[in-house]
Amino acid sequence: KYYQGCFNSIVLMLYVDLLEFSEPGVFNYSTLLLSETRDALYVGAREAIFELSKRNVTVRNNKVQWKVADTPMSMCTLKGKSKEDCLNYIRVLQVLNEEHLYVCGTHAFQPQCDYLSIKDFVLEGRAEDGRGKCAFDPSHSVTTVMVDGELYSGTVYNFLGSEPIISRYSPQQALLRTEYSTSWLNEPSFVFADVIREGGGPAGEDDKIYYFFTEVSVEYEFFGKLFIPRVARVCKGDLGGQRTLQKKWTSFLKAKLVCSMPELNFVFNVVHDVFVLEAEDWRNTLIYAVFTSQWGNVGLSAVCVYNMALVDEVFSKGKYMQKATVEQSHTKWVRYNGITPSPRPGACIDNAMRQENINSSLHLPDKTLQFVKDHPLLEDPVLPVGGRPHLITKDVNYTQIAVDRVTALDGRAYDVIFTGTDTGVLHKSVLDEGEVHVVEEIQLIKSGGAIKNLLLSSETRSLYAGSDSGVVQSPTAFCGKYLSCDQCVLARDPYCAWDPSSSACVNILDRPETQNGLIQSLKGDADSCPAVAALSPRDYGRVLVRPGSSAELPCAPPSNLALVSWRLNGSALTEASRFHFIGEGGLLIYSVGPEDQGRYECWSLEWAPAAGKNFSRQVAAYTLVLAAPPAPRGPRKDLGRAAPELGRSGPLGDPFPEGNANTPGPSPLTPARLSPPLPPPPPHSKAPGGPEARDPSAQYLQRGNAAALLCLFLLFFFLFLAALAYNCYMRYLPAPCLRLRAALVGGHKSPLRPEYRACEGGLMEPPAAEKLKLAPRPEGHQLRALRDTGYETEPDCGNGKIPSHGFGGGGGGSDSPSSEKPFDVDSDSQHIEFADADEPSC
Ligand SMILES: *[C@@H]1O[C@H](CO)[C@@H](O)[C@H](O)[C@H]1NC(C)=O
Ligand SMILES: *[C@@H]1O[C@H](CO)[C@@H](O)[C@H](O)[C@H]1NC(C)=O
Ligand SMILES: *[C@@H]1O[C@H](CO)[C@@H](O)[C@H](O)[C@H]1NC(C)=O
Ligand SMILES: *[C@@H]1O[C@H](CO)[C@@H](O)[C@H](O)[C@H]1NC(C)=O
């Protein structure tokens, strides 16, 4: 049911005006917080907190500085930390109540928290110990969520960063935290935490806080550190145990997140960010997560989606794992098959427990507590929706994700996935019944730094990205850049629709009342667009070309998915026909002759998979006419390209201005390279359009300059003879020549050596002029050899895509064996399997 696209770097790169904020001397804008009630985006940077307008982040409403005093600073540097690391990096920014934000910073490796008054925007100086809430080292991970005035965080608890912690801080109670044990947390890197409100249900369930992180596996034996992506959860009502697990979580459980391509045995095992797409019923809430692989050289990123109901099922019904000692010293994690104590260890207090007089975690029996202390890890993994990633992208490292659900004009909801990369690029992809397509790619961070934080506001319909260099605000859609109905519809962007009355591509969210008459097709069916009158030959751009020179006819396809084809006098042109080269930018015709005259049409063809048809339209049209041969003068060949006299473009919105039909486009072939090697033109004829420009053949024919022709013929004849003699001498030519050679040189009659035979073919290929150049054996031989090697060893990457069998439309393969146990390291071949997995990426 589900399959996913595999994208190389996307061709279409948008250059748009974005709103940016940064202040000189301030860096690391990595903590962002959107206010729900005010027009405010709070930004935590290095030694500063800003309040920006969320409608326009260039507007700074407030700023407060939070520097480290001299004494802690010198103590920090005395402990061997760099001056830069000892600065105060603001890492926690949460709304405490209507008057205050709660703010924490690394503060010279002595994390501190303070209250920030929203009204006056000043720190109140009630500094609190930030241990367990904020990291010591700015390079360590911190994730926090404020739930009903209590701060839940995941970070490290000590200076060295060796003691990881998931904790809850509330002004009324003591810090509740994880046990310090590698089976609870083992070198975790926290990426996200959020609350899922389940409270108030008929079962009297508690709200739960979910943490997402990558940690080092304990359950698999591996030759190095094997990372495992995890989801862990704790209950909001947890108060710790009475005797066992005092001031520790009694509800801490964790499970493995699976994001893999089972057919290829390829595992994405590092989670970077999570976005929770909330639904009315928490069971339908979706968790979007971005992954890469620990083996970074593979260069693949993936988005996997998890269903909250399934996550909950793993936690409430999953089997536990336990540590078993084998062969005395060696421990191994295996499934626990014994009887689990009741109530279920790690479960939140619900009505059933209350009936047994267990009203809080303080009343839980020691047996249950001891069990959960020893068995925090569940064996059952959390599997992704569809059993596989929804999106796989090659050659990027995704760092952040945000998801918007948009109801399109067809009444259906589409999930739009925004992913940020480590090079400051934003990808926007649309998910439609398991099919995904990338709509656009934007360079958000101009400096190319990583996107460290990405927030989405449906209210302002903007994305906010934090990086080391600043904060950027971008709209969620750029409908205005689609200039025609076809472009607007074929982009298949659920935000955009064509408004025939204003002839503009508009954002449907801008006008929720007047959506009647708007044209949108998420299936990419542009037939509903108003018919554009077909071009009549009168409207064609007229291109005047001198015989023998080259012409370039530009054609900009409407989208990056379109295939471009050309027609001459109504019949299709192929790459193979004469000197035509169809590049990205248009058609290049070399050495235009009388037979090239005619009507050229550029058509784009786009396959609209959802609509099940091809959609084609005319993008540009030209009439190519040979210029009358001008009065002859000195013999020379014009190497320049022709200038069209009237390069008027058709009415279909060809972006090229008039008279510009030979704008040098991004064609991979340039005329100079293909032109025959001839002496440089005399200086007086440099201007290609000047009256001196001549076509030589025309001149010769007109003048009947037989002498010149004869000279040329003789020259070529001599060259031919020289080449023949040389090749014969080098034994490139067959038997009769060899006999002659033997008679002349007296060499032995050894059979041709294989490499000569191999290069023989290569020497016959190039046209005469090139042949002369290639004739000297060493270069020719080398060239050929290089070519051959290239062909044989380069794997077929299919234009950078991984082989399609890895993705096929299938998805049916229910819970395939490898999704159950993608890290089954019991077999010694495990690391070899992972090495194999590198192959498909070329
Ligand atoms: C802070 O920003 C600076 C400048 O861009 C960068 O070199 C440094 O690595 C950043 N530090 C952290 C902890 O992100
Ligand atoms: C992705 O990150 C890895 C590890 O940090 C790095 O080696 C690789 O070059 C990055 N790839 C891209 C495309 O940025
Ligand atoms: C195309 O049509 C024009 C006039 O209709 C004719 O002169 C030209 O030779 C034709 N070209 C080809 C390649 O058929
Ligand atoms: C659509 O166009 C592609 C590419 O030219 C072609 O292979 C395919 O058969 C066409 N499909 C239909 C239904 O016309």
Automatic annotation (TrEMBL):
Residues 530-602 form the Ig-like domain. Gene3D superfamilies: Immunoglobulins, ligand-binding face of the semaphorins, domain 2, YVTN repeat-like/Quinoprotein amine dehydrogenase. The keyword Ribosomal protein does not apply. Residues 821-834 have a biased composition (Basic and acidic residues). It holds the Pfam family PSI. SUPFAM superfamilies: Immunoglobulin, Plexin repeat, Sema domain. Residues 633-697, 790-842 are annotated as: Disordered. GO terms for molecular function: chemorepellent activity; semaphorin receptor binding. Residues 1-476 form the Sema domain. GO terms for biological process: axon guidance; negative regulation of transcription by RNA polymerase II; neural crest cell migration; ossification involved in bone maturation; positive regulation of cell migration; semaphorin-plexin signaling pathway. Residues 665-685 have a biased composition (Pro residues). It is found in: Membrane. The chain crosses the membrane at residues 706-729. SMART domains: IG, PSI, Sema. Keywords: Disulfide bond, Glycoprotein, Membrane, Transmembrane, Transmembrane helix. One of its GO terms (cellular component) is extracellular space. InterPro entries: Ig-like_dom, Ig-like_dom_sf, Ig-like_fold, Ig_sub, Plexin_repeat, PSI, Semap_dom, Semap_dom_sf. Belongs to the semaphorin family. This is Semaphorin 4D. It comes from Gadus morhua.
